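Render this sequence as a predicted structure.
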Amino acid sequence: MISESLTSIYKELPSGVELVAVSKFHPLSSVLEAYAAGQRVFGESRPQELEKKVKELAAMPDAPQLRWHFIGHLQTNKLKMVLPYVELVQSVDSLHLLQEIDKWGKDNGKVVNVLLEMHVAAEETKQGFVEEDLLELMLRQADTHPYKNVRICGLMGMATNTDSEEDVRADFERIADFFEYLQDLCPELDDFKELSIGMSGDWKIALEYGATMVRIGTAIFGERQY
């Protein structure tokens, strides 16, 4: 089933758009099945689960070479469980978190790739920066580059959880327009290229608004298993 689901998605995914298979709440066996079908990038949202899967994979003979993205809310006291293993933190949702990631990078001699999470969804429970704060942060980074151990690679966002396609489109349009505005405003930040929008229920719509990454879980793995 996982292989068939991936094959179907690959056929509809434009060249240059990265598929992040959201493997959170699914066992390592499902990750390996997706890997065997050709998937290489996986997304996790719980530090303990990510670290456990990474260590289990590392202990395997001829360990598969997966690429991990962290896509959930990240607490600063869990950085050491995530940052050594991931190629991208998609969900930097506050200035404090960005500063702590930058500090971790400095202490460990690394530059951490991140996306800034933009809040547009109607739900108050969603995390993320509002436009004004993103603008201030980006202008400061372009001007004086205070965060030398993070590489800001783009924006991540989620549409409102609703059956209204009109509302979903409005959210994606707002994120995409602001992403392009920031690109135009801060050309010095030439790593700012990624727009991660779209999940299992709305990824095809997200493609219409310039998504360079889509995060798909249920449509690949089925309903969560734990």
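Summary. The radius of gyration is 17 Å. The beta strands are 18-22, 41-44, 67-70, 88-92, 112-118, 150-157, 194-196, 213-216.
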